[in-house]
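Sample intake sheet
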Amino acid sequence: MIIKSLLDTDLYKFTMMQVVLHHFPAAQVEYRYRCRTPGVDLRPYIEEIRTEIRALCQLRFSQQELTYLGGLRFIKSDFIDFLDFFQLSEKRIEVTEGNKPGEIEITVKGSWLHTILFEIPVLAIVNEVYFRNVCPNPPWDEGRKRLQTKMHLVLDAPDLAQFRVAEYGTRRRFSHAWHEEVVLTMKAQMGEHFAGTSNVWFAMKHGVTPLGTMAHEYLQACQALGPRLRDSQVFALETWAKEYRGDLGIALSDVYGLDAFLRDFDMYFCKLFDGARHDSGDPLDWGERMLAHYAANRVDPRTKTLVFSDALTIPRAIEITRRFAGRCQTSFGIGTNLTNDLGHEPLQIVMKMVRCNGQPVAKVSDAPEKTMCDDQAYLAYLRQVFELPPV
């Protein structure tokens, strides 16, 4: 089995799932998988993928795992009671051959509450099945050499005492074993520079801090769940604040692009949330605009945290740190470049929510290639409502 625990996923799946339990328990959703890497043939491995997903659907939370989750300050007891009975249903996921050469299709449909935990482990399964077939003798020494080089860029720089980086690489990791080695190596060698991991299983197992707040699917679902589309971003942030009362206060900024985010992220949200997360577009431009926005809303940017997580590398994170040093707090989440950098091209695979309660939903970020929607008329309407430029 590739996935041996339901905790082998990102923390934000649980923080969002708790919001779903308390506010949207009846929501019905659909997720769809996409491989953005051209020329990848996954059809020979489709039965392996199905077998691993079947095993995933047999897992239940152990009492040790529930005790750990219940010990997190923001997790509530009734959510733990719900998880005690939770199990993913194989009936909700379908893996088939696609229409294009080498393509496979993965679709998840059902209750949001009962399907939200599919995405991350399914992507991890696809990655590991693929790489154990195309790379049966992995270049571990090359991976270790690359990891050491990255860490020493931080450790050997005297001006980076405040640099903090978290590992965010579950969904696109080379393998479970390599992922664990990366976490253990960073914990052992980076000291306070290592902020933690998004992976709850490794956080529990190795005593590091689990990190995460919200993902795009949460704000996307609110397009269908809120009172009207134009107010969906505000509705999502207000519902989040109602659930967590000031905790987990990093807002995701790129579901509709930065312009639309800043229009909604008014003085109330500037003061209420601890900061914002960048996940598309130019990070330096984004950071400058966020700092100007805080200043315009009479908030000292030095009290806020900007989290950067878009296709980051250590050198890029260091550049961003130096740009904003003394002007705000910064933190970095690096995924693929840590957990899948052994010399082989990583797969660019995603699984996105495309419908909620029968209605199309979409992310329209500052990076056009990240847009994923199966209804072009809805996408055009979304752009109009949020005053986004046409494609």
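Comment: The chain is about 45% helix and 15% strand. The domain at 11-136+347-385 is CATH 3.20.140.10 (nicotinate phosphoribosyltransferase).
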